[in-house]
Amino acid sequence: MSIEEILETDEDNSRKSRGTLRELDERIPGVFEDIHQHLNTVLRLHDESGRQDAAWEKIDRIAAELGTTRDDLVSRIKQEEPGRKIRFAAQARRVLLNVQTRQMLLLAVARYYAWGATDIRRVRLMSASANLRLQIEAVGILLLSSTDDWVTFRWFLAQDDHKGVKFFKRYRRSIERMLDSVGLTSGYRIASATGHHVRVGSLALAYGPQYSTLDLTDYDPQRPERFHQFIVWYLTNQIRVLDALAVAVPQALDPIHQARVRATEGIVAEAKQKLKHAKSERKPRKIPPQPPV
Q1: Could you identify which of 73, 80, 161, 239 might form a hypothetical disulfide with 63, taking C-beta atoms 3.0 to 4.6 angstroms apart as the criterion?
Q2: Is-contact 275 69, C-beta < 8 A?
C-alpha cells in the first residue's frame, strides 16, 4: 500500500468511525467536540496578566534604581550577576517565565488532545494513547507549577536531552504525586505502556490472520466492543484532565464551564454503563481448538 493509499484509507476510516462511535452512543461524536471546546474555554479563562504586570513593574522599578534599562537588567539576570537587587529582579523574571510557560503547557494540553481525538477518528488507538500520555504529563507539570515557579523555570531551560533527563529525574515523583491526586496515574501508566513501548498488547488489535499481517488501524470488526472500551477509557481520562485543569487554573472553576463539563461527564458515564451491561449479556467466545505446536 502506497502512502497516498494510506491517506485515502485514513479519510475513509474517519467517515466510517463516526458510525462506530454512534453505535456506542449517538452523542459520543459530539462529546469529542465538547471536550475540544472545554479545553479552548480553559485557554480563554486562563488569565495571569495581573502577576505578569506586577513582575514587569518590579523589574522596571529595580532597573530605575540601578540606573539602567529593562533589557540591560534582564541581560544581567541571565548572566547571574551577583547582588541583592539582581536577585529580586531574577525572582520577578521567574514569575514572568512561569506565566508564559504555563500558557505554553495549556496550549500543549489542547494540541495533544486534538491530535489524539483525530487519531481515534482514523482508528489509530495506539498513537492516541501516546498523545494522551504527553497530555497528562503536561497537566502534571502545570499542577506542580501552581505552587513552585522554579518548576516551569527549570522546564523552560531544559532544552536539550541532558537537561531534560535531569529535570524529570528531579521532579518525576512530585509529578506522579500530582497526577495521583487528580486520578490520572492509571491513565498515564497505561498510555505510557501502550503508546510509548513496543508490546504485544499494543499491537494485538492490528494483527491479521495467523499474525501474517499488521493492519494500519487498531480495529477488530469482529470485536467492536474493544474499540468502544478504548473510547470510554480515553474520554474518562479527558474528564479527569479537565478536572485537573480546574485545580491548576483556578479561573477554570467558572460555574457555567464546570456545569458543561459535568454534562459531558454524564454522557461518558452512561456509555460506560451501557458497555458493562452489554458485557454481562455477551456470551463467551468459543475458541477453536488449536493444532499442536
Answers
A1: 73
A2: no
